[in-house]
């Protein structure tokens, strides 16, 4: 268990992960902050249309991903989990229960492959979490379920059903908790939800710092919310609201609380996941950076076969130092080799140092020209 940074008698403490906690960090979060949780995006379909939803436009469809890898078959999930050396999975969406059979199949497959200790938690609005759905999830091996009810619409048509389904979740032997964003102006509603969780035996309430994305920014601005600064995606007042909820919760409930900040997601969770993946996907000529990205040299030229032959026969570069990436139309190599070649090779050959994520989509984060 991750303990040690809660001093005895203290109400709330900042964690080494730039977040804040009261009590004990939820088990799913313990794996997550270490980068050990596979992000299993089951579907972008959701019965709600929350104004603050940050989901990108290309994921607001019936698509499935394991981290950044598109899922075409269950083996894709298993392979991605192995590359990450994942010790668990966070099942998310959309609402995973909008595609219940798919979700159950994915959970069962992960448990069968990696065993009962592979920890799986799931996020749901609760709208579709009826007794049958809950039973199917439990039987598949789900360890932890997190409810996100519709607290932020004054006349929600879903809230009563979500709360009723939440109550049914306590019939099963798993961890039940809540997870909601800290939306300024809704402090009383969040406290009301915390009270319900506490009354029924809930284990935790996670509060997420509200962030903007290109898909929810207009909605947030139209409601008067503003970013903290030009350098941050966090919304002004959200962090302060989260801290007030934790202070109130410690005095008035027996729940564990975790305030997950925007910085935790970027500076800790993603970074740790990238580091775990990088050591398993890096080729011998690639350097792994402190952030878990891959750095190496490349050469670009219209005729890759001609360039490859020239580098081996004329420049006398050992074959084991060169790799033709046909998909990206380049030859990859150690940085030192690219730097030396850039000084002596003339013509239209372009040499660069590139830095990429070790993820399935290999997003390029930096490119430095050498000639």
UniProtKB/TrEMBL annotation:
Keyword Iron-sulfur found: yes
UniProt keywords, alphabetically: 4Fe-4S, Iron, Iron-sulfur, Metal-binding, Oxidoreductase, S-adenosyl-L-methionine
Cofactor: [4Fe-4S] cluster
InterPro entries recorded: Aldolase_TIM, DUF8061, MJ0021-like, Radical_activat_CS, rSAM, rSAM_sf
Annotated Radical SAM core domain residues: 31-250
GO MF entries: 4 iron, 4 sulfur cluster binding; metal ion binding; oxidoreductase activity
Family: Belongs to the organic radical-activating enzymes family.
Name of this protein: Radical SAM core domain-containing protein
Source organism per UniProt: Pyrococcus horikoshii (strain ATCC 700860 / DSM 12428 / JCM 9974 / NBRC 100139 / OT-3)
């Amino acid at each position: 268990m991750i303990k040690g940074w809660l001093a005895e008698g203290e109400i709330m403490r900042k964690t080494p992960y730039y977040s804040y906690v009261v009590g004990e960090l939820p088990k799913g979060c313990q794996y997550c902050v270490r980068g050990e949780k596979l992000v299993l995006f089951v579907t972008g379909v959701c019965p709600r249309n929350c104004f603050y939803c940050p989901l990108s436009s290309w994921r607001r469809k019936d698509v499935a991903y394991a981290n950044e890898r598109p899922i075409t078959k269950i083996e894709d999930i298993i392979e991605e989990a192995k590359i990450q050396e994942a010790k668990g999975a966070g099942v998310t969406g959309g609402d995973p229960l909008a595609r219940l059979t798919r979700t159950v199949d994915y959970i069962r497959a992960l448990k069968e492959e990696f065993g009962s200790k592979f920890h799986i938690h799931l996020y749901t609005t609760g709208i579709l979490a009826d007794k049958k759905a809950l039973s199917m999830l439990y039987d598949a091996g789900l360890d932890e379920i997190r409810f996100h009810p519709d607290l932020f619409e004054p006349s929600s048509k879903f809230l009563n059903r979500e709360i009723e389904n939440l109550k049914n979740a306590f019939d099963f032997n798993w961890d039940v908790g809540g997870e909601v964003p800290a939306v300024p102006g809704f402090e009383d509603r969040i406290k009301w939800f915390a009270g319900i969780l506490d009354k029924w035996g809930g284990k935790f309430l996670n509060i997420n710092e509200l962030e903007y994305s290109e898909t929810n920014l207009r909605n947030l601005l139209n409601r008067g919310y503003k970013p903290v600064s030009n350098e941050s995606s966090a919304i002004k007042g959200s962090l302060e609201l989260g801290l007030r909820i934790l202070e109130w919760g410690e005095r008035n409930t027996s729940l564990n609380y975790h305030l997950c900040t925007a910085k935790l997601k970027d500076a800790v969770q993603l970074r740790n996941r990238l580091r775990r993946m990088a050591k398993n996907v890096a080729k011998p000529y690639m350097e792994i950076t402190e952030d878990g990205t891959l750095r190496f040299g490349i050469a670009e030229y219209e005729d890759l076969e001609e360039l490859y032959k020239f580098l081996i026969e004329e420049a006398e570069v050992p074959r084991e130092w060169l790799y033709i990436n046909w998909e990206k139309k380049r030859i990859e190599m150690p940085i030192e080799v690219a730097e030396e070649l850039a000084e002596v090779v003339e013509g239209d050959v372009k040499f660069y140092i590139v830095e990429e994520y070790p993820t399935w989509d290999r997003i390029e984060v930096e490119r430095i020209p050498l000639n």
